[in-house]
Each structure stands twice: as C-alpha cells, then as structure tokens.
Write a structure and sequence with these properties.
Blueprint: H1 9-17, H2 21-43, H3 46-62, H4 73-132, H5 135-145, H6 151-158, H7 162-190
Helix pairs in contact: 1-2, 2-3, 2-4, 3-4, 4-7, 5-7, 6-7
C-alpha cells in the first residue's frame, strides 16, 4: 500500500491537476475495476469496455490541468464512462444503420445505376436507329412513339392512309429490332 492509497479523492484530484503521476496511478488503481464493472454491464464486451476505460483515463491525464474536480472525482469518472458508453452505443447503432444502407445500396443501388446506364444506352441506340430510317418512315415512327398519336391521327396529319402508317411503323420496328436484340444479347452475356 502506497501513501497515495490513503489520500482522499479531493487530495488525489489536486495532485493530479499539478501533474503528479503517482496520484494519477492511485486514481487509476482505485477506480479502474469499479468503472470497468459499471461499463461492462452496458457493453457486454470486454474489449469495448477496456477501450472505454483506457480512453477515459488517457483523457483524464491529458486534460488534468483544466479539469475542475473539486469533491467530484467519482461522479466525474462515472459520468465520463456513461457518456463514452452512450457514444459507443450510438456509433454502433449508426454503424449498423450505415452497414445496412451500404448493403442495400450494393444490393439495389448498383442495379438502379446500371439500369439508368442501360436505359440511356438503349435510348441512344433507338435514336440512332430512328435517324437511319427514311424521312417519311422516321416522321411516322416519331409521331407514333414520341407524340403517342394514333394511326388515324398520323394518317390525317400527313394525308396518308392508316395502312401506310401501319406499314411505316412495322418497317421501322424491323429496322430497330436487330439492333436492340444485339444489345440485349450482349448484356445477357455480360451479366450471366
């Protein structure tokens, strides 16, 4: 038993404030296992509990000159442990939430991005295919697909028969179909 073991918390706190390492050691020895037992009730993990207690004492030494511990060493230490426990539990909660959102992103977010890229590429291929169509066919096809006009409305606007409109759309689809099939086959090979 050292002489410091007989000192009160107030005396040890005063000596700690002046940089007395032996006083720090006495505080550590006096409170380490009490704080450890208190923290372990919450944490249920020895390593996390040790980390919290060591962080507390490291911080105590680092801030010894600025701490106001008059008659409050034990309450300060317990409050500091409690705050560290709550911070640790909050970090774990957010880590679990982050992990969950990251897994969700990996499972679904990549697909959304992939689908957006595929959609844009598909639209570019369709636009390029439409641009290759003869002018009248392209006009009919765009009125049907982009303006969503019926065959009858297109026929009236262009002064052609509905049968001609139908044939232009069928031929337009025949032009686009092989281009789209090639892209779809390539995607299927890449993703399987």
């Amino acid at each position: 038993m050292t002489v410091y073991d007989a000192y009160s918390d107030v005396e040890l706190a005063d000596l700690l404030k002046s940089g007395d390492q032996a006083a720090f050691t006495a505080i550590y020895d006096r409170y380490y296992w009490l704080l450890h037992a208190h923290a372990y009730k919450w944490m249920r993990n020895r390593d996390d509990t040790k980390d919290i207690i060591h962080e507390l004492f490291s911080n105590l030494w680092a801030k010894r000159e600025t701490l106001n511990l008059e008659n409050k060493l034990a309450p300060y230490l317990y409050a500091a442990v409690r705050n560290r426990i709550f911070n640790q539990l909050a970090r774990e909660k957010y880590a679990v939430q982050y992990s969950g959102s990251l897994e969700d992103f990996i499972d679904h977010g990549e697909c959304v991005t992939d689908h957006l890229i595929r959609e844009r590429l598909l639209m570019e291929i369709i636009e390029a295919g439409i641009a290759e169509m003869p002018q009248k066919m392209r006009q009919v096809f765009e009125m049907s697909r982009k303006q969503q006009l019926s065959h009858k409305e297109i026929a009236e606007q262009l002064d052609i028969s509905e049968d001609t409109v139908r044939k232009h759309i069928q031929h337009g689809l025949r032009i686009l179909r092989p281009k789209l099939e090639m892209v779809l086959i390539a995607w299927a090979l890449i993703h399987h």
